[in-house]
């Protein structure tokens, strides 16, 4: 019985360490679109190993009145093509 209690206690203590506080996230990126629109506090998603000749689709769904905007960015210039 005592052994089970010790394992349970150690498990709860280790869970407390793993579920500790989360540090604040850094501010998002800013993108200037080809139409002059600016996106502030954006989230960057990097896609690796995109094959040429294939079609890729990105979808963003707005919830509770949120209106997402998608941008494809040229990493050398920082400008992007945007769709709302």
Task: List the strand order in the largest sheet.
Answer: 2-1-4-3
Indicate the mean pLDDT: 77
Radius of gyration in whole Å, from Cα?
22 Å
Total of domains: 1
* Alpha-beta content class: alpha+beta
Low-pLDDT regions: none
Distance between the termini: 61 Å
The H-and-E topology, N to C, reads as HEEEE
* Strand content range: 15-25%
Helix content: 10-25%
Distinct helical segment count: 1
- Quick one: how many beta strands? 4
Can you put this structure into words, describing what you see?
- With 84 residues, the chain is α+β, with helices and mostly antiparallel strands.
- It has one domain.
- Helix content is 20%, strand content 23%.
- The chain is built from 1 helix and 4 strands.
- A 4-stranded mixed β-sheet has the order 2-1-4-3, with no helix packed on it.
- The longest helix is centred in the first third of the chain and has 17 residues, at 2-18.
- The chain is elongated.
- The model has no long low-confidence stretch (mean pLDDT 77).
């Amino acid at each position: 019985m005592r052994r089970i209690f010790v394992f349970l206690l150690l498990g709860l203590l280790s869970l407390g360490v793993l579920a500790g506080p989360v540090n604040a996230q850094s501010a998002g990126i800013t993108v200037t679109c080809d139409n002059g629109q600016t996106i502030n506090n954006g989230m960057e998603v990097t896609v690796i190993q995109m094959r040429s000749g294939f079609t890729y689709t990105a979808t963003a769904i707005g919830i509770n009145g949120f209106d997402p905007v998608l941008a494809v960015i040229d990493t050398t210039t920082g400008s992007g093509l945007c769709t709302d």
